[in-house]
Design goal:
heterodimer, A: 178 residues, mainly alpha, globular, B: 508 residues, alpha/beta, eight-stranded mixed sheet, four-stranded antiparallel sheet, 14 helices, 14 strands
Chain lengths: 178, 508
């Protein structure tokens, strides 16, 4: 237990990363909802559409928490200097890079398995980019400060999106036990 | 997975086939309430995307389904039966509700079902007081209607029960009370099915990569048996597993049962087994037709190849169905059952279009088989007057000795209480781009009357009437609308009048 506590980042830094996580994942989920909204409006009632929004927000909340948990796990497993120190900006960069990579992969996915020639470079570039950006932030203090400034400002989204996700979760539960 | 190691898929199917026993208590209750005579079973078996134009008994040159045609020798065959719609959602809704798409309004792929006011207007409700009701739809878009009508369903076999994998989130116990909205949330939204962006940024990608990877590996492991990959609905499946599953369900029937079994084959992508590869590479090709302005622009060669694949898949499906027909003949089930074989819509391989998700309406898309075997029927009967998929509900209610629901829009089928009406108007439509809550304004609708068909395409950038004499021109090659024969104008007025009438309830 004490090992985990020693390897966990500070609460303030965890909240910084949670802010980035909810901002990115909820915003992407809302983008998907708005993209499909015209189609929903064509064929579903308001109650059903709000139900869909609730499921999506609840799912985004769970996904955000899962992502932060994964980053915390990395922080616990890796040597402290690698990831725990500077968790806020390292977590931010990690979320940024895997999000961009994920969008790129989603854009090429179809029913068939993409070839290794397409998929592997994307993972390779993502990894190298992450290492490069982390090194840059480590060396260039102004860059690190900029990242921390952004993560700090994104914390506000915790107070916006987390309650929305909780409401979504509650509505989802009520819809399924009613 | 741990259970996959301990229980084989075939054993799992046997377990699934026992699910209907869950309805035993209900049946016993009915027996106590009505200890009298046993009523005939009424069973509807739907093959998805099954066009009548690919069967010998409807004039096709290739013998695609010999087992089915043998079965039809002791059944009633409807030769001019038309679906009310051109794809699964509205087609199934019409079949189950007995309503036209302009009434039930399940007209888009993302539809959550029929309008709320029609929730109790379904074929199951006609049988709940006297029969056990059983529903299974392998196509998830058809299964949504079983979820919507679940209050009239004693046994709902899950959509993926006979697939190789079963991972529909909305099908899990967690979402049983809200399956339709959870389906719309997860399916093609939080998790994308094919192309496009998942609303889940990270888990969506991971889940999709995992699913595609598994599918590819599965195709690879079955490559010798299925050279074009495994049959696929929302999950992969084997044709024989589906037949085994259905057999399990039929074997469990021990009391008056109404069953709706909606099976995915021969829906695309026509993944036939090795035995049927090149089965119809016979040099024959369908007549070439002019490319339609609203079609997908596929080449003649690719259409002919898809047509051949469809035929080979049909033959493969029929081969597997042999076991089902053997069971039906040997078990005595036919002696006490009305058994209906039909489809929700057809399939097209012409005019630059392949499949059925299209605004086009031609015979191949709406002309579907309808074969009904009545209890103990020993001779074939043929009906040549035009009939519609909305007629199935009132007819089955009638043969089961029930009053025809007043909301049903169809008529009794000839030889099953109805009369042959040669000049009756039959409507089929597609309005997937139209709002379900507003008057029809963007649509294709066809009216088939006797030997004539009038089709009206109404889109923002394309409006046209087409008129065909189906007796002289069964391939619909010569549009007679420009010459405006009297019958055509009369039909146009009737169609426009009908549209105005059905739009009224939706005008504010």
């Amino acid at each position: 237990m004490s090992f985990i506590q020693r390897h966990l980042p500070r609460v303030e830094e965890i909240l910084d990363v949670l802010g980035v996580s909810v901002f990115v994942l909820f915003s992407w989920s809302l983008r998907g909802f708005l993209y499909n909204l015209p189609s929903f409006l064509h064929s579903l009632g308001v109650g059903a559409i709000l139900g869909i929004l609730c499921y999506m927000m609840a799912f985004a909340l769970l996904e955000s928490l899962l992502l932060v948990c994964c980053l915390l796990l990395i922080s616990i497993v890796l040597p402290g200097k690698w990831y725990r120190d500077g968790f806020a900006y390292k977590g931010f960069l990690t979320i940024l890079v895997i999000s961009i990579t994920s969008i790129q992969i989603q854009s090429i996915l179809s029913a068939d398995w993409p070839s290794k020639e397409i998929l592997l470079p994307k993972f390779g570039i993502a990894f190298l980019m992450l290492v490069f950006l982390m090194a840059l932030a480590h060396i260039l203090v102004p860059f690190q400060k900029l990242l921390l400034e952004v993560t700090g400002r994104l914390q506000i989204f915790i107070y916006l999106y987390v309650p929305i996700g909780l409401v979504g979760l509650l509505v989802g539960i009520i819809r399924n036990i009613a | 997975m741990w259970f996959e190691k301990k229980i084989s898929r075939r054993e799992m199917l046997k377990v699934f086939s026992l699910i209907p026993l869950a309805g035993v208590a209900d049946r016993v209750r009915r027996r106590i309430l009505d200890p009298g005579e046993r009523l005939p079973n009424v069973l509807i078996i739907v093959f998805d995307a099954w066009s009548a134009r690919h069967l010998t008994m409807y004039g096709y040159p290739r013998a695609t389904m010999p087992n089915l045609e043998k079965f039809a020798q002791k059944a009633t065959v409807f030769h001019k039966h038309y679906s009310a719609a051109t794809f699964t959602v509205p087609g199934t809704a019409s079949l189950l509700s007995g309503l036209h798409p302009w009434s039930h309004r399940a007209i888009a792929l993302s539809s959550g079902g029929v309008l709320d006011r029609h929730t109790h207007h379904n074929i199951l409700s006609a049988f709940t007081d006297s029969h056990s009701t059983l529903g299974y739809a392998q196509n998830v878009y058809a299964d949504l209607f079983l979820y919507q009508f679940v209050h009239d369903l004693d046994v709902h076999v899950q959509s993926g029960a006979f697939d190789l994998k079963h991972r529909y989130i909305n099908d899990t116990l967690l979402f049983q009370n809200d399956a339709r909205v959870s389906f719309a949330s997860f399916h093609d939204n939080i998790f994308q099915e094919n192309r496009g962006f998942d609303a889940s940024l990270l888990l969506g990608t991971a889940f999709r990569l995992l699913k595609i990877r598994e599918r590819s590996l599965m195709n690879l492991s079955y490559k010798d048996e299925y050279p074009r990959g495994l049959p696929y609905s929302s999950e992969q499946f084997l044709l024989r597993d589906v037949v085994d599953g259905v057999l399990g369900l039929l074997k469990s029937i021990d009391h008056s049962t109404f069953g709706y079994l909606h099976l995915f084959p021969p829906h695309g992508g026509y993944a036939f087994s090795k035995k049927f590869k090149h089965h119809f590479r016979d040099g024959w090709s369908p007549p070439e037709k002019p490319v339609h302005e609203l079609a997908g622009g596929k080449s003649v060669d690719s259409l002919n190849l898809a047509n051949e694949y469809y035929d080979e898949y049909l033959a493969n499906w029929d081969d597997e169905l042999g076991a089902l027909f053997d069971f039906l003949r040997g078990s005595g089930l036919l002696d006490n059952s009305y058994l209906v074989f039909t489809s929700d819509h057809g399939e097209i391989f012409e005019r630059g279009e392949a499949g059925h998700f299209t605004p086009l309406i031609y015979d191949a898309l709406i002309h579907v088989p309808l074969i009904i075997s009545r209890p103990g029927q020993t001779e074939r009967q043929d009906v040549y007057s035009v009939t519609s998929s909305v007629d199935v509900l009132p007819t089955l209610a009638h043969v089961a000795g029930k009053p025809v629901p007043d909301w049903a829009e169809g008529k009794l089928l000839p030889l099953f209480g109805g009369t042959e009406e040669m000049d009756r108007s039959i409507f089929s439509m597609d309005a997937k781009s139209n709002s379900a809550f507003r008057p029809l304004n963007v649509f294709t609708v066809s009216m088939t009357k006797g030997n004539f068909r009038l089709t009206y395409y109404k889109y923002p950038s394309f409006t046209r009437f087409e008129f065909y004499n189906l007796e002289d021109d069964p391939e619909e090659l010569h549009n007679l609308y420009p010459s405006q024969p009297a019958i055509c104008l009369k039909m146009r007025d009737e169609l426009l009048q009908k549209l105005s009438e059905v739009n009224k309830p939706f005008e504010k």
